C-alpha cells in the first residue's frame, strides 16, 4: 500500500517547545531552558518523547535539573538526549540549568536546533483512514479493526 497526503491536508504538530538557550559574551557559561507540552487535546497521549540537541563544540559540560524523565549529555560528541516519556498536562516537562563553555573562545554564533521524536497510539495524524479491506483466497475471517500509530519523522525546532 502506498499513499500521498496533499499539502491541503496538513495537520498541526501535536507538541510545542518553549526554549531559551543563551550564551553570554565573554563568559564561560550559558543558560539552557526547555519546556515541552501538548499543543492540543486530541484525546490521545503523546508518548515516547525524546529530545536530542547537538550542542556547539565550545560546550564543555551541562549542569541541568529536570521535572520529568532522564537526560544524558556526552561531553565528547556534545549531544544532549532527554528521554521524557509521556507528557502529563498537569506538570509540563522542563529541563533547565547552566552550560559550561571553554574559556577564551568566542561564544557560538548560532543556537543549536532541537530534534524531537514521539509516538501517538491509535491516531493517524495524516488524516488517512482505512474504510475497507478486502482479502481474497483466505479461508479464515480476519479480525475487523485497524491499528493506527503516528511516529515523528524529522521534527526539528530551530532556536
How many DSSP E strands? Answer: 10
Overall geometry comes to elongated
The CATH superfamily turns out to be Mu homology domain, subdomain B
Q: Regarding CATH, which class?
A: Mainly Beta
Q: In the CATH hierarchy, what is the architecture at level 2?
A: Sandwich
Our measurement of the CA-to-CA distance between the termini, rounded to an integer number of angstroms, reads: 37 Å
The CATH topology is given as Immunoglobulin-like
- Give the class from helix and strand content and strand pairing: mainly beta
Q: Compute the gyration radius: what is it?
A: 21 Å
Please give the share of residues in helix.
under 10%
Instruction: Please work out how many helical segments DSSP would assign.
Output: 0
* Chain oligomer state: single chain
How many domains? The number is 1
Biggest pleated sheet: 6 strands, antiparallel
The average pLDDT value, as a whole number, equals 84
What is the chain-wise order of helices and strands?
EEEEEEEEEE
Residue fraction in strands: over 45%
Unreliably modeled segments: none
InterPro entries: Adaptor_comp_med_subunit, AP2_Mu_C_sf, MHD
Pfam family, one: Adap_comp_sub
Protein name: MHD domain-containing protein
Domain MHD: 1-158
What does this structure look like?
The structure is a single chain. The chain has 159 residues and is mainly β. The protein has a single domain, classed as Mu homology domain, subdomain B (Immunoglobulin-like, Sandwich), CATH 2.60.40. It contains no helices and 10 strands. It has strands at 15-23, 29-38, 46-54, 59-66, 70-74, 79-85, 94-101, 113-121, 149-151, 155-158. Strands 3, 5, 6, 8, 9 and 10 form a 6-stranded antiparallel beta sheet that branches. Strands 1-2-7-4 form a 4-stranded antiparallel beta sheet, with no helix packed on it. It is elongated, with a radius of gyration of 21 Å. The protein starts with 14 loop residues before the first strand and ends with a strand. The mean pLDDT is 84.
